[in-house]
Design goal:
Elements: E1 16-21, E2 27-31, E3 37-39, H1 40-44, H2 50-61, H3 66-73, H4 77-84
Protein name: IS1 family transposase
Organism: Limnobaculum zhutongyuii
């Protein structure tokens, strides 16, 4: 099953392609819509960024269960539920 990566800059989810990896082996992506590159790391690490919130809500509205979202984002269950209840 293919899960779209959402651009953290313009939130486009149809023009993001793989763009190699970093030295630490983190997958990088490039958004063809805005031309910027980023790591999924940005989406999933750190303190409940806007990107994480957006990702959780986007996945949820796409029909993914909280458990599936947890596996995909590495976020804690309680974090996910908090975002979903917003
Ligand atoms: Zn973009």
């Amino acid at each position: 099953m293919n899960k779209n990566i959402i651009c953290i800059f313009c939130e486009d989810e149809t023009n993001v392609t793989k763009f190699g990896t970093t030295k630490t082996n983190i997958q990088r992506y490039r958004c063809k819509a805005c031309g910027k590159s980023f790591q999924t790391d940005y989406l999933y690490r750190g303190k409940e960024s806007l990107a994480l919130s957006y990702t959780i809500q986007k996945l949820s509205s796409s029909g993914y269960s909280p458990e599936e979202i947890r596996k995909m984002t590495d976020a804690r269950q309680e974090t996910i539920f908090r975002h979903l209840n917003n």
